[in-house]
Amino acid sequence: MTSILQQQAADLFNITLTDAQSAAFDTLTTELAEWNEKMNLTAITEPDAVRVRHYLDSLSVATVVDLQDQHVIDVGTGAGFPGLPLAMAFPGLTVTLNEATGKKLKYIEHVVSALGLSNVKTLHARAEEAGQQTRHRAKYDLVLARAVARLPALLEYLLPLAKVGGAVIAMKGSTAFIEADDSGEALRVLGGELKDIIPIRLPEMEYDHQLVIVEKVKKTPGAYPRKPGTPTREPLME
Ligand code: SAM
Predict the structure, then answer these.
(1) How far is the C-alpha of 218 from the C-alpha of 165, rounded, in Å?
(2) Ligand 1 centroid from CA 78, angstroms
(3) H helices present in 146-226, as ranges
């Protein structure tokens, strides 16, 4: 029988999930609730809310970018969103889940192993450090983040990790437009160009979510990202 997640992923985003993939999402829901009793991973654990606000929200990225065999990094992944559902739904992707808090990565490593995902890597670092490391700097086709920082600072985390010609997608709420207005200087300095802001309406949600899409058009100068903490303390703004 088709699950609600399978039905909604197909109807909303044209994503086909097999029965095995759907069952893997059920396992993830159980693991998330269990681990959340031991550590603070997410405020959302009720299965229907997890389906909409974590899984469908993560999968919405597929509406604006063709997900095939790209190298993707999810910065500040927390409990794995949006990168984990994308890796589960699109096995051709190679997804690096980056997180500064080691405890959260312990959970991620556990579920990645429990689900037998071979296309997920973890990276325990601050994004500002990863962006200065040769093995991560300018290595990703697609750089994602949800709920990590305001856009001017977030761009300093994300753009250094993207290849020239690659894309950054920041998953935002209603502040997307104000944050984008504040990001002119960061885009100019870091080598990004704002391409679009696409509204996403999820079932039973009152407000649209916004996908802020930025193309990496030029190399990021070596001075960026600055030291951990500096992008949020002194965001690149005129
Ligand atoms: N992206 C997840 C989501 O939407 O459910 C988690 C969002 S949570 C509010 C923000 C996460 O970003 C936290 O887990 C935090 O540890 C991580 N984080 C914040 N700043 C970071 C940085 N500079 N580098 C890496 N991770 C960071």
Answers:
(1) 8
(2) 5
(3) 151-158, 176-181, 184-190
**Per-residue model confidence as pLDDT tens digits over 100-151:** 999 999 999 999 999 999 999 999 999 999 999 999 999 999 999 999 999 9
What atom of ligand 1 comes closest to residue 42's alpha carbon?
Answer: 5
Report how far ligand 1's centroid is from the alpha carbon of 238 (Å).
26
Query: From ligand 1's centre to the CA of 77, what distance in Å?
Result: 6
**Ligand 1 shell residues, CB under 6 Å:** 75-79, 81, 98-101, 104, 126-128, 146-148, 157
Q: Which helix (H) or strand (E) holds 49?
A: helix 47-49
Compute the distance between CA of residue 152 and CA of residue 139 in angstroms, rounded to an integer: 21
Question: Against a cut of 0.90, is the pTM above it?
Answer: yes
